[in-house]
Amino acid sequence: MDTISFKTISANKKTVNKGWILVDANGQNLGRLASTIAILLRGKNKPNFTPHVDCGDNVVVINSAKINLSGKKWSQKNYIRYTGYPGGQRSLNATELFNKNPNTIIEKAVKGMLPKNKLGSKIFKNLHVNVGEDHKFSAQQPKPFNFS
């Protein structure tokens, strides 16, 4: 066996194969769903994963309004933001944020699991969350993702 044949393959923008994946959030727990989506977005499930390259897939999430939170998280989980003014700290619990926009809960959970740099911002743009079954990416023919 020749050791020269064992070379590390590093992906770059030109050699990466980006696909489209369809994830159904119906009945899924938020944290487990978000970690799976983050892995798919980052490309850690691929054999040619390279940490400094966006080698993940585009992910379309449907049925975000049918997500589950375990325990008492609907009332106890707080989402805090700051307006920038003195005394401008605002907080919403999960139920209030869900009633405003169900997509935001999934987006915030996934964004917290991505790198906090320019690459993380670029990867996050590959996430598309939809409330219902309909999405505008049917032309890309996303492949359904099986959680098992």
Write a structural description:
It is a single chain. The chain has helices at 30-42, 73-76, 94-100, 102-111, 118-124; strands at residues 20-24, 58-62, 78-82, 89-93, 127-129, 143-144. The protein is of the alpha/beta class and 148 residues long. Strands 5-2-1-6 form a four-stranded parallel sheet, covered by helices on one side. The protein has five helices and six strands; from the N terminus they run E-H-E-H-E-E-H-H-H-E-E. Helix content is 28%, strand content 17%. The protein folds into two domains: 19-67 and 110-148, Ribosomal protein L13 (Ribosomal Protein L13p, Chain: A); 72-101, no CATH class.
Helix and strand arrangement:
Blueprint lengths: L19 E5 L5 H13 L15 E5 L10 H4 L1 E5 L6 E5 H7 L1 H10 L6 H7 L2 E3 L13 E2 L4
Helix pairs in contact: 1-4, 3-4
Short descriptors:
single chain, 148 residues, alpha/beta, Ribosomal Protein L13p, Chain: A, 2 domains, 5 helices
- Please give the count of helices: 5
Proportion in β-strands: 15-25%
Tell how many strands the DSSP assignment holds: 6
Q: In the CATH hierarchy, what is the class of the largest domain?
A: Alpha Beta
At the fourth level of CATH, the homologous superfamily of the largest domain is Ribosomal protein L13
The SS-based structural class is alpha/beta
Helix content: 25-40%
Write a brief caption for the model.
The chain is of the alpha/beta class and 148 residues long. It contains five helices and six strands.
